[in-house]
Amino acid sequence: MSFLPFGRAQPSSAEKIAAAETEMEMIAEMMNRLNQSCVKKCVPPEYREGDLNKGESVCLDRCVSKFFDVQMKVSEKMQGDAAMRQGQ
Question: Which of 59, 67, 70, 87 has the fewest CB atoms within 10 Å around its CB?
């Protein structure tokens, strides 16, 4: 914590750990949503082979790409909205 009149107060170790844990939970949740939606869409429930076939691989690749594109757009929009609210 900084006692100087300028600059931001530095977070404590406990705050850094809590922020890291929250970030890990958010990443795990996002990966679970990605996995559920793309596997449900691209991989049939009955497996014929041990490996993905070409069509499934291409479908998963496109699905993951679209998922992350949407996540980035939503994140940018939310950050822009937050910046506008802080500016008001």
Answer: 87
